[in-house]
């Protein structure tokens, strides 16, 4: 009997835009593509952890919409950030009670950035919740998370599409970016200018790894959504689902991959 084809999925960061990853996962699951491992940065790490725990994409969407994420944040009395990420740990503990990478139903890798050494640090074993919080600690907004004497911040600073933890483990890698930036003819204020520049930097980081992916999924125009625009959650979910279905239809090799995976699962 042939060994099962292993598909890895790398999920980018992008704030609330990461909800589109749930639509991507739903579409892939519907055609029979189930990941052997997921890697994620920031929002991609959060979505990845919940999915790897065994929650269905629609269930995760409901949890995100119904949970008042911001009520768990507390002001930080320091020069390192205006909010504390640590207080959100209790929220994650509700849905990831074991707090252990090894207890996840699907293997997961989380990307963070060591702000002192300027290096990417990956986690795929041991304590789960702190690495997730570190991976989504936006510099300047949240205090860094300290793990093993390292001060860690958002993984997207250096790697917003962490394909590296999947290399040599998975036969195929699907990269998913949730920050496609539409053209903008009227940048009317400094806020829009800064936001656009940040997303451009994030996407350069992503596109430099695009060649490492066998398939790349990027719903168009998601960069227009705000990082905290939770009211757009259903719209974002649908955008990820629709784009994935288009990619599947346009790539016969991806459909063949789904068929091969299904055949091997039935053996």
UniProtKB/TrEMBL annotation:
One of the protein's GO biological processes: lipid catabolic process
Short sequence motif GXGXXG: positions: 13-18
UniProt cross-references to CDD domains, sorted A to Z: Pat_PNPLA6_PNPLA7_NTE1_like
InterPro entries linked to this entry: Acyl_Trfase/lysoPLipase, NTE, PNPLA_dom
Protein name: NTE family protein
Catalytic machinery residues: 42 (nucleophile), 154 (proton acceptor)
Motif, DGA/G: chain positions: 154-156
Keywords: Hydrolase, Lipid degradation, Lipid metabolism
Keyword Lipid metabolism among record annotations: yes
Positions of short motif GXSXG: 40-44
PNPLA domain span: 9-167
Pfam families: Patatin
A GO MF term: hydrolase activity
Keyword Lipid metabolism set for record: yes
């Amino acid at each position: 009997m042939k060994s099962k084809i292993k598909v890895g999925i790398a999920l980018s960061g992008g704030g609330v835009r990461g909800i589109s990853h749930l639509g991507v996962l739903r579409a892939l699951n519907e055609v029979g593509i189930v990941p052997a491992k997921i890697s994620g940065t920031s929002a991609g790490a959060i979505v990845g952890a919940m999915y790897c725990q065994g929650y269905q994409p629609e269930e995760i969407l409901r949890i995100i919409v119904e949970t008042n994420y911001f009520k768990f944040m507390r002001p930080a009395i320091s020069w390192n950030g205006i909010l504390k990420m640590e207080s959100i740990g209790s929220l994650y503990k509700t849905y990831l009670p074991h707090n252990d990478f090894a207890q996840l139903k699907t293997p997961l890798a989380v990307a963070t950035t060591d702000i002192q050494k300027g290096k990417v640090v990956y986690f795929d074993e041991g304590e789960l919740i702190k690495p997730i919080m570190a991976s989504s600690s936006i510099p300047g907004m949240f205090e860094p998370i300290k793990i093993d004497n390292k001060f860690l911040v958002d993984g997207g600073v250096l790697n917003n599409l962490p394909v590296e933890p999947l290399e040599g483990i998975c036969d195929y890698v699907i990269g998913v970016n949730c920050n496609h930036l539409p053209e903008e003819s009227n940048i009317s204020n400094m806020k829009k200018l800064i936001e656009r520049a940040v997303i451009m930097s994030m996407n350069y980081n992503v596109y430099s790894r695009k060649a490492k992916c066998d398939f790349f999924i990027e719903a168009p125009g998601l960069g227009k959504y705000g990082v905290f625009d939770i009211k757009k959650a259903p719209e974002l979910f649908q955008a990820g689902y629709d784009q994935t279905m288009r990619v599947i239809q346009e790539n016969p090799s991806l459909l063949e991959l789904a068929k091969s995976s299904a055949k091997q699962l039935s053996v």
